[in-house]
Amino acid sequence: MRSYGQLACEYLSQPHSFDEYLTEVYYDAERAFQQLAEYTGDGAWLTCAQRAAAIYRDQYVMGAPCWGGGFGVCRVLELHPRLTMDYLRTGDAASRDAVMALSEHAAYASTRRRSKRRSRRG
């Protein structure tokens, strides 16, 4: 587990194409690195989790053109709980914003729910 995690983390620190990065992290690498940090008690794994988040959350989710970003297609069909977990664990506003963007703009997000959320937020 640790050796594979270390290889994956090192991979994320090297130059690769976006598609190669995305294949390595997809939606669950951030959580896997967080679990390694919890299991081993080694906070260094959180750096790896941040690298994974920078790819999946910041570039893939927030970069989708369906909400004004620049890369990729809006293929996200459901709200991935890992981003919610990251926000709840770390208070990272970027993860919170990604959760909100997915809930309001992902494929199959209800327009009725969107208008209700907006009215609740003021």
Question: Outline, from the CA principal axes?
Answer: globular
* Share in β-strands: under 5%
Quickly give the structural class. mainly alpha
Distance between the termini: 46 Å
Radius of gyration: 15 Å
Write the layout of secondary structure elements.
Layout: H1 2-12, H2 18-25, H3 29-40, H4 45-61, H5 81-90, H6 93-105, H7 111-121
Protein described:
This protein has 122 residues and is an all-alpha fold. It contains 7 helices and no strands. It has helices spanning 2-12, 18-25, 29-40, 45-61, 81-90, 93-105, 111-121. The longest helix is centred in the middle third of the chain and has 17 residues, at 45-61. The N and C termini lie far apart (46 Å).
